[in-house]
Specification:
- The structure is a single chain.
- This protein is low in regular secondary structure.
- The protein has three domains: 81 residues, no CATH class; 51 residues, no CATH class; 79 residues, no CATH class.
- Helices cover 7% and strands 7% of the residues.
- It has a two-stranded antiparallel sheet. A two-stranded antiparallel sheet has the order 3-4.
- A hairpin with a 4-residue loop joins β1 and β2.
- The protein is flat.
Length: 213
């Protein structure tokens, strides 16, 4: 028999959703004998994403459902959580002195200090939240014979990604074979030197991560 009181034992294993039979309409179902007796269901969670109702009805989860999902995600996808500390909390200005016709305010540094203590004109002035500096290559070159600019040239490796579709051939990428005759012998990238691209960054910093696309 179907239960008539919410429990942690059936359904979505939450106690904050009232029991309900399989019902696809936007509203409480009519009386039925699903509970081993003729009974009615009231305050059923027909607007819950876990219900059987149509998508037009569903718009929410219950607090217990949210808690269960957080518990699962925090355990299974723990490695996805950012390890960086959040940005510091800024403090409101404080009144340090006042007279009948003036007031003096002072802005104190944030609680941990590292985010707002930046010098203008330095790399730290360009940092994002979490004290992160994002750089793209700004000067690319290659010792291989190729045009200095244009399609397939080393200059295509500068700046942010701009290809039409990732992992597909594009004229907006660098290719060591762009200026090489297909009948050239020896090959365009002779060993042991091979083909390589030299990239420079505007700020010489030790990187935390490097992304190549």
């Amino acid at each position: 028999c179907m239960e008539t009181e919410p429990s942690f034992e059936t359904g979505d294993l939450c106690s904050d959703t009232n029991p309900a039979p399989k019902h696809k309409f936007c509203g409480d179902p009519g009386p039925g004998n699903d509970t081993c007796g003729f009974n009615s269901f009231f305050n059923t969670p027909y607007n819950n994403f876990m219900s059987y109702a149509d998508d037009d009805c569903t718009d929410s989860f219950t607090p217990n459902q949210v808690a269960r999902m957080h518990c699962y995600l925090d355990l299974v996808y723990q490695s996805w959580q950012p390890s960086r500390k959040p940005a510091p909390i800024a403090l409101a200005p404080q009144i340090v002195s006042h007279t009948t016709d003036s007031v003096t305010l002072e802005w104190f540094p944030p609680i941990d200090g590292h985010f707002f203590e930046r010098e203008l004109g330095s790399a730290c002035d360009l940092c994002l939240e979490g004290r992160i500096l994002v750089q793209y290559a700004f000067n690319a070159s290659s010792p291989m014979p190729c045009g200095p600019s244009g399609h397939w040239s080393p200059r295509e490796a500068e700046g942010h990604p701009d290809v039409e579709q990732p992992c597909k051939s594009s004229v907006r990428t660098w290719s060591p074979n762009s200026a090489v005759n297909p009948h050239t012998v020896p090959p365009a990238c002779p060993e042991p030197q091979g083909c390589y691209l030299e990239l420079e960054f505007r700020y010489p910093l030790v990187p935390e991560s490097l992304t190549i696309w």
